[in-house]
Amino acid sequence: MRNTATHGTTAFKDLLRDTLDDAIELSALLESECNALITRNFNALQRIISEKNQKIYSLEKKEVKRKALMDARGYPQSSAGMENYIRSHDSNGEMHNLWQQLLELLDRCSNQNRINGSILNARHQAAERVLQLIQGSSREEENKLYDPSGHKIKAFKSRTLAKI
C-alpha cells in the first residue's frame, strides 16, 4: 500500500501530465483558429471555437484540482508556493520539467490568442469601414471639426448609397 505522500505526489504528476496534454491540444486549436480566421473558413471556425472553449474549461477544472492538492499540503497559491511544492516533492526532476513545459506552452497559447484577437479586430474594423461606406458616412468626417490648418470646416451630410 502506498503512503499518502507518495500517492499525493503521483496524483500531482498525473495532473500536470493531463494539464500539459490539454495545453498541447489548446495550442493546436489556437493555431487552427488562426488559419481559419486568415482563410475566412467560418464553418471550421465555429467548430474550433467550440472545441477551444471545452479545452479551456477542462484546463480551468485541472487548475482547481492543482490548487486543492497544494492547499491540502499547506502550500500557498503563488509561483513561489508552486516552486516550493515541486522542490519538496520532486525527487527526479519530472515535476519540474512538466511544470516548465506547461508554463512555456501556456505562454505560447497566450501569444497565439493575442494574434488571433488582432486578426479578428482587423477584420471587424474592415467590416465597419465597408458598412460606413455603404451607408455614406464616416466617423472621421463626422468627428472632424477643423482642417489641418486649424480653420473650422463646414459640416456636411454624406449621401447614403444603400440602406441595410
Description:
76% of the residues lie in helices and 0% in strands. The protein contains 5 helices and no strands. The protein has helices spanning 4-39, 42-72, 79-89, 94-135, 139-143. α1 (4-39) runs parallel beside α4. The radius of gyration is 25 Å and the shape is elongated. The model has no long low-confidence stretch (mean pLDDT 85).
The low-pLDDT segments are none
CATH topology: Methane Monooxygenase Hydroxylase, Chain G, domain 1
> How many beta-strand segments?
0
The number of helices is: 5
CATH superfamily: FlgN-like
Q: Note the beta-strand portion.
A: under 5%
Question: In percent, how helical is the residue content?
Answer: over 70%
Mean pLDDT: 85
CATH architecture name: Up-down Bundle
Query: Compute the gyration radius: what is it?
Result: 25 Å
Kindly, what is the distance between the CA atoms of the first and last residues, rounded to a whole number of angstroms? Answer: 72 Å
Q: Could you say which overall geometry the principal axes of the C-alpha atoms support?
A: elongated
Order of helices and strands: HHHHH
Number of domains: 1
The major pleated sheet works out as:
none
The computed structural class is: mainly alpha
Query: CATH class, anyone?
Result: Mainly Alpha
Annotation keywords:
164 residues, elongated, mainly alpha, 5 helices, 0% strand, Methane Monooxygenase Hydroxylase, Chain G, domain 1, single chain
